[in-house]
Amino acid sequence: MFRLVKYFLLVVFFLLVACGEKEPATLSYNFGTPVSEAIVEKWNIDVGPDGAGLPEGSGTAETGEPIYITKCALCHGEFGEGMGRFPGFVGTPEDLVDESPSKNVGSYWGYATTLWDYIYRAMPFGNAQSLSPDEVYGITAYILSLNNIIAEDEVMNATSLPQVKMPNRNGFITATGADIHAVVCMQNCVKDINITSRASESQASLSAKDKEKDIGNYHR
Ligand code: HEC
Question: What is the pTM of this model?
Fold first, then answer.
């Protein structure tokens, strides 16, 4: 008998819940307008390493060179050698075997498609996203040919660009597991740890003027 009452109450409970359920009210803060497809489209410009997202268009080093000279050379040098503190693009993976390695397009970048994405998205500095896909294919081809990765007349487009093999393509490893391999000391461990210097002290030893310069460097 008690069981029956229990089931009856359960059924009543579920009926009540079912009746009480209403459509959730649409939250509205009464400001802004719904984002349009056209706006989303403008932001949706990412290109994957495999070339997914590359638009139609094409270019060669020959079509890209004059555009590069007009729009890029003033900061990056006519031959991508870099100017002052603006980065250069030319190198080989040999540049990485150095105490202060130079990570540039030729020495470091794993995918030519990333170069396309970066230029289309962020350059020329101060006037980003002003270049057409054709111009970016040409400029990308020019930078790749400066690095002797492709020939001057090789056509770069959505099909050929992902096939370009960058010199450092296989220079990356996927890190798995712990990167600290020290064995935990359980007995006869070092008693006194001698700290020889602290970062804050080496900062303190700088003169006020040097400190300012040092901080300035980080902000450049
Ligand atoms: C006014 C100066 C200026 C102009 C003009 C300019 N750039 Fe840059 N470029 C920069 C600066 C500054 C950086 C570094 C940005 C950063 O690290 O955030 C940069 C970085 C780059 C990089 C990445 C380099 C690396 O290895 O990290 C590429 C590629 C590049 N620019 C291509 C171009 C191309 C192509 C053009 C012409 C369409 C161009 N830039 C025009 C200033 C400029």
Answer: 0.73
